[in-house]
Amino acid sequence: MYAKLIKDNFVKLTSMAAIGTAAASLSLVSTIPPSFAAPAPSCIRVISQSSRSITVRNDCGNQQRVKLIIAWGPDSGCNVLNRGQQRTFTWTLGRFDRLDRC
């Protein structure tokens, strides 16, 4: 009698553990930070750079969407650069890290 009770409880516990593990795995996948964006293409050129500003130009054959990534500061929003367009970004905190696609 006790053996059956122990077996039934063991089966319930292992089922609950499996469900908990699956739920934890799904929550980890959904919390992957969006910082894994692809870098901006090489045809997005840095024209000039200082400690608090950077000027980039779109030398690609088409429109590009880029985001300025600032280390130790807020990133820019997504910016559309048309073919041949040049844009200067400025910031107050942090330092320039990279340009990403968005």
Automatic annotation (TrEMBL):
SUPFAM superfamilies: alpha-Amylase inhibitor tendamistat (SSF49498). InterPro entries: A-amylase_inhib (IPR000833), A-amylase_inhib_sf (IPR036379). It comes from the Bacteria. GO terms for molecular function: alpha-amylase inhibitor activity. The keyword Signal applies. Residues 1-37 form the signal peptide. Keywords: Alpha-amylase inhibitor, Signal. Pfam families: A_amylase_inhib. Gene3D superfamilies: Alpha-amylase inhibitor. This is Uncharacterized protein. It comes from Brasilonema sennae CENA114.
